[in-house]
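User: Fold this; tokens only.

Assistant: Input:
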Amino acid sequence: TMEHTKPSSSHRPKRRRNRNELEASTAPSAPSLPAELWAHALQFLFFDEVIPITSRNSIFFLPDVSAEIRTLHVRHSQNLRESSENLKQFENVDDINVFSLIEELEHQPAQHGRNRNVTNLHLDVETIENFIPFISHFPKLSVCFLGGLSSDSDFTYSLDGDQRFDVPDHQVQIAKLIESVCQGYLVGVLSTDIKLYGVVGYHGRRGCNWRNQLQDIASYRNDVFCQICDMICTCFPPPQVMNFCDNQIPCISKENRFRIAKFRDLKRYKVNATNVLLWQLGCSYGAQLMHLPATPDKKLLVYHYLDNMIEDMRWLI
């Protein structure tokens, strides 16, 4: 009888490795570091660079790193359409910068002390459409910036009334952005604790761009002087309503913005109003902190306020 024996390893036919196995075998392995350190390093990358590294299909997949990431930087609008499954792993993110709204098309070097003289900008409509659905996936989000990043990543862009965009109806698109944000606050998709920066831009010298260039919004009340300005003051968190500058909400005075905020949240009005005005007096109005020698061995900290700052203090009192 013939005896069947298992062939030795030297005579066995070798299994051909597939492409993924070959790539994994030749690729450098990720250093063994704590998840917190990996997360800190990944926060210096853009979101489109973080996704491939943290994906389960990646040869560099690092368990528990995604949950440690606190900040995301988005530079491409297509990343705002990431699947819920991919976004779910970043459950502890509390700070997001979305730089895909404004893009430089052409710029000139700095002249006469100015950072940049931009001749044309692109307003990304896809970002406007997907911004709220994207940030609503992050339950712990507390701060979010929406704007653009210069081509050399030197500084950021925010909406400004004097900007020239390549989109003919850019004011209509910006109004749609504000409507979507307000709707997010109203239906509870966005927490009122989220501070959004860059969404409400600054107006030019001609006054309110929305009142001058937009038709009536059918879905909003039409018995107000300016629908967009009124919508912002009605929907945005009260502390942020009080903190807006006059050229951000040109149709509603500071006094009326404070009255609206008081009506909407009477319980926390005093604390919010005091914090907002103290911050404005100390920072945004340019108060200077001076060290005056009171005695040879001591220095006195003194704030120097301009007349309009004094008026604001009197009004608060």
